[in-house]
Amino acid sequence: MLREVYQILLESYGEQNWWPAETPFEVCVGVLLTQNTAWRNVEKAISNLKGHKLLTPEGILECQKELLEELIRPAGFYRQKAKYLKNFCSYLVSSGGLENLKRKKLENLRNELLKLKGIGKETADSILLYALEKPVFVVDAYTKRLFYRLGILKTEKENYEKVRRIVEASFSRESDKLKIFKEFHALIVEHCKATCRKKPLCNSCCLLKLCRYVKI
Ligand code: SF4
Questions:
Q1: How confident is the model at residue 173 (pLDDT cuts 50, 70, 90)?
Q2: Where's the HhH-GPD domain (predicted)?
Q3: What is the best residue among 156, 192, 202, 206 to mutate for testing ligand 1's pocket, by most ligand atoms within 8 Å of CB?
Q4: Ligand 1 within 6 A of CB of 142
């Protein structure tokens, strides 16, 4: 069923080509800043960092705490996020940069990221998938809501790892898992923002024939 859901979403919305960023490092910064805030706020913060030529690991590490907080303020929770950014950049520099990290095995890398402050599973997997090109599926609240409504999950509060494993197992024989996982997550977000909202617009839903939840 998941493969069918993916195909229908892809045909309906087209390729999303996530993550919206100019460099893999910008992806990481965007992922760290987007926690608990809307993307437009992250864009303002990233634009501020670019304007001050600070969008590099070294730039963020050397930047004074107060200035960094001020620049990322639009993204909210700016004190906490400034610490998380500095922590992440420190890890990145001491590991020899993103290209070095890419050479590590997925599970080792994931465990290292999860040990960093401010990096939970969704954040770690977003960095792994969109910045480090590792074939891992990112689960978020939209994913759980949609899969629950489609009858794939028994509850919207399903365990993160269980959902991730269900999706990854469904595409285990695909040769292009990386591209599929990048697109599938982005398509789910798009679909849940446009149609399968909190109050779903089932009348105009491309997944109507597969759905058990339908509210018309
Ligand atoms: S039919 Fe309704 S509940 Fe089901 S996926 Fe579509 S919008 Fe969501």
A1: confident
A2: 33-194
A3: 202
A4: no
How confident is the model over 82-137, as pLDDT tens digits? Answer: 999 999 999 999 999 999 999 999 999 999 999 999 899 999 999 999 999 999 99
Residue at which a domain ends, from 116, 131, 146: 131
Interface pTM, i.e. ipTM: 0.99
Q: Which amino acid is at 94?
A: S
The response to whether residue 214 sits with its C-beta less than 6 Å from ligand 1 reads: yes
| Distance (Å, whole) CA 185 – CA 168 | 12
112 within domain boundaries = yes
**Residue 87 near residue 117, CB atoms below 8 Å:** yes
Residues 189 and 145 sit within 8 Å (Cβ to Cβ): no
Q: Which domain holds residue 30?
A: 24-131
- Asked which of 131, 148, 168 is the last residue of a domain, the reply is 131
DSSP character at residue 119 = -
